[in-house]
Amino acid sequence: MASHRRPKQPSRTRVTVLTVTAAAAVALTAQSGAQAAPAKPKIDEVKSKVDELHHEAEEATEQYNLAEERRGKLQEEIGNLQDKVARGQQELNTLRDQIGSVASAQYRSGGIDPALQLFLSSDPDTYLDKASAIDQLSAQQADVLTSIQAKQRTLAQQRAEASTKLADLEDVRKTLGEKKKKFQGKLAEAQKLLNTLTAAERAEMEEKEQRASRAAGERVSLGNEVPASQRGAAALSAAATQLGKPYVSGGTGPNAYDCSGLTQWAYRQAGVQLTRTTYTQQNDGVKIGRSQLKPGDLVFFNSLSHVGLYAGNNTILHAPKPGAVVRYESMNYMGTFQFGVRI
Fold first, then answer.
1. What CA–CA distance (Å, rounded) separates 199 from 259?
2. Which residues, in sequence order, are CB contacts of 46 under 8 Å at separation 6+?
3. Catalytic member of 4, 54, 55, 259
4. pTM
5. Residue 295 above 80 pLDDT?
6. pLDDT tens across 205-214, in order?
7. Identified catalytic residue from 4, 54, 55, 318
8. Does position 285 have pLDDT exceeding 90, yes or no?
9. Burial 99-111 (b: 16+ CB within 10 A, else e)
10. 259 assigned to active site
């Protein structure tokens, strides 16, 4: 006869083992998932990418500055042309009034045949004097008509030129919007990357840059190189008074600068008027090689998107990038050297 026994319940020990095993499995799964997640970028990797984005933003900034300079010139040219057209129209109106007066005079004196007027005249001599005056009026009328035709041609040319420049201005305004959007996008992308770092990591990165800048400044004094010229020395000295001023896109001083804004401001203090952008400043002097550089020369980098002042001993003084200040920096960290320009 079969026995009726109750099924054996699992022991507490067994339950505990199963629970621990399950927990371990969950922990291993979680650990595996954590390992599969992308690793956080290192500070140096973030800095390298941020610097790259800042270079791209600076290139767009210089193109924006170039378009802004073009916009200013076009507006001035259009204003001058519009003034000329207004004056020309006024002169044309005056000429038309003159021709109207001449025509009225001829009409008043020309109602009777000249021979009959002479026959009927009680004073032939007086009539002949009047006839001579009318001939002079006719000659004057011809001159006025010639002037009117010339003035009309000039006005048509000036209006066409103004119309062309207005179209150019509209294109430049469109370019300005595109370039501004581009550099703002690059700066936002760079800031997003910086935000992946902790406050301590960002502070560490900034301290490292500051130490490098201080070391570069010390190398300048050790170099003791002869400046390119008196004006070059004056420009470099002026720029040195701006150390610590912030980089701001479009800044031309005296409170903030972008790279070409600083070089333009510094040379202005030396009595030299440079153009506004890196793309035009390259033509403000004589191009030279790296081995020929002397303090005060302009130095260009990265496809002409950046410019600074050579300070001596392989060091430049410049407004480097957003978030940084005017400072000294080794040329070894500046990217691709293009050429120098001696003013």
1. 27
2. 193, 194, 196, 197, 205
3. 259
4. 0.64
5. yes
6. 888 888 888 8
7. 318
8. yes
9. beebeebeeeeee
10. yes
Within 8 A by CB and 6+ apart from 283, the residues are 275
Residue tagged active-site, from 4, 54, 55, 306: 306
User: 139 vs 111, 132, 134, 142, CA distance in Å?
Assistant: 19, 11, 9, 5
Question: With helix as H, strand as E and coil as C, how does the chain read?
Answer: CCCCCCCCCCCHHHHHHHHHHHHHHHHHHHHHHHHHCCCCCCHHHHHHHHHHHHHHHHHHHHHHHHHHHHHHHHHHHHHHHHHHHHHHHHHHHHHHHHHHHHHHHHHHHCCCCHHHHHHHCCCHHHHHHHHHHHHHHHHHHHHHHHHHHHHHHHHHHHHHHHHHHHHHHHHHHHHHHHHHHHHHHHHHHHHHHHCCCCHHHHHHHHHHHHHHHHHHHHHHHHHCCCCCCHHHHHHHHHHHCCCCCEECCCCECCCCECHHHHHHHHHHHCCCCCCCCHHHHCCCCEEECHHHCCCCCEEEECCCCEEEEEEECCEEEECCCCCCECEEEEHHHCCCEEEEEEC
- Give the per-residue pLDDT at 98: 73
- d(CA 239, CA 299) in angstroms, rounded, equals 14
Burial 55-94 (b: 16+ CB within 10 A, else e): bbbbbbbbbbbbbbbbbeebeeebeebeebbeebeeebee
Residue 46: both structure tokens together: 């973030």
Model confidence at 226: pLDDT above 80: yes
Which position has the higher pLDDT, 196 or 143?
196
- What are the tens digits of pLDDT across the range 93-136? 887 787 666 556 555 555 544 544 544 455 656 655 555 555 55
Per-residue pLDDT at 24: 46
Report percent pLDDT > 90 for the chain. Answer: 31
Active site residue 306: yes
Report residue 43 as tokens: 């500070």
**Confidence label for 40 from pLDDT (cuts 50, 70 and 90):** low
